[in-house]
Specification:
The chain contains twelve helices and 13 strands. By secondary structure, it is α+β, with helices and mostly antiparallel strands. It has a seven-stranded antiparallel beta sheet with strand order 7-8-13-12-11-10-9. Helix 2 packs across helix 4. The longest helix is centred in the middle third of the chain and has 29 residues.
Length: 334
């Protein structure tokens, strides 16, 4: 019985398609270097080129063109920062090109990778700092809350602990505060500040909608054409094998396929030509999220707005951001 040939992984397939022997040899060697420098990195294709990702961040990519190879750090800052090390190479702000028969030196590749990793780490620190500033107790001073409510943040935290607020949900907590605080804005602010301080709420999560994310893109088609795509070509935005009837109460399923879980859900709201609201529950999710698609006519084309609510956590929020960005990107290319 004949053995079924092994399906090539994305980078394997890319390298197999490179007809120039010198270029293929150079890029295969570069791939091995990157594997040693980035153990555990995900190997995939991004912008149609072999790419190494670490924690979702593209760190290094390479490609072969008609007469040269290219190395890309997916950053506009890495190449300029290594200007002296790259002397003699043809560079742009985003990459380095080199002849197929003149591979990049191992030390130079290592420097490019380390510079990109350092940049990502620095960005992560800035993000963490920004999140801390997003805490209500960081944004609203003790003096402001005391002047408006008679108590500063520390006193409010102690008072709410003493009242057993840790056992209350958000609605109950606001109702409790309403007994002492007249302003609904301060009721909500104190409630959220308490939930953040006691680990009941993460920055980026709202009381009613949980973690949420929005992605929008203007596509080169009219709103009626885009609506027809949504209703008649579900596979193009839901996934291969998807079948959909845009009627409230109707369920839908997207079969599991390589690299993507199955998804099920139910249509909740349909405003023809304008908006669809539905549940979205991939395999493995304990509870469904809410997915809303909105079409907005533009002078040239139409904007496709994707909004998701009630996502389980911040990591899933970023996964959904990447997922829908890819979906809208593929629609824009068609």
């Amino acid at each position: 019985m004949a053995t079924k040939p092994r399906e090539l992984q994305p980078i394997d397939a890319y390298l197999a398609s490179v007809e120039d022997p010198a270029a293929r040899k150079t890029l295969e060697a570069l791939r091995m270097q990157l594997r040693k420098l980035l153990p555990g990195a995900v190997e995939t294709l991004s912008y149609r080129m072999p790419t190494f990702k670490v924690d979702g961040n593209a760190v290094a990519g390479f490609a072969f063109f008609k007469h040269h190879c290219g190395y890309y750090p997916f950053s506009g800052g890495v190449v300029p920062a290594l200007k002296s090390e790259l002397a003699g190479y043809s560079v742009s702000k985003s990459g380095v090109t080199f002849p197929p028969n003149r591979p990049l030196p191992v030390k130079l590749v290592k420097a490019l990778v380390q510079a990109r990793l350092a940049e990502i780490a620095a960005k992560g620190k800035k993000t963490t700092a920004a999140r801390k500033k997003a805490l209500i107790t960081e944004r609203v001073t003790d003096g402001a809350v005391k002047e408006a409510t008679g108590r500063d943040w520390k006193v409010w935290m102690r008072a709410l602990d003493a009242a057993g607020a840790s056992a209350l949900n958000h609605k109950q907590l606001v109702a409790h505060l309403a007994r002492e605080v007249e302003s609904s804005w301060w009721q909500q602010s104190i409630a959220v500040a308490y939930e953040q301080a006691r680990g009941k709420r993460v920055v980026g999560e709202t009381a009613d909608t949980g973690f949420q994310v929005g992605v929008v893109r203007t596509l080169p088609m009219s709103a009626p054409e885009l609506w027809e795509l949504l209703t008649q070509q579900a596979e193009r935005w839901l996934g291969a094998g998807a079948k959909l009837e845009l009627e409230p109460g109707k369920g839908f399923e997207v079969p599991k396929r390589r690299g993507a879980p199955g998804v099920r859900g139910e249509i909740r709201v349909v405003k023809p030509g304008q908006r669809v609201r539905m549940t979205w529950q991939p395999d493995g999710w304990k509870k469904p999220a809410t997915l809303q698609l909105t079409l907005v006519p533009k002078a040239r084309g139409a904007s496709f707005h994707v909004h998701m609510e009630k996502l389980p956590d911040a990591e899933t929020r970023e996964e959904m951001r990447e997922h829908w960005s890819k979906v809208l990107g593929s629609l824009a290319k068609d």
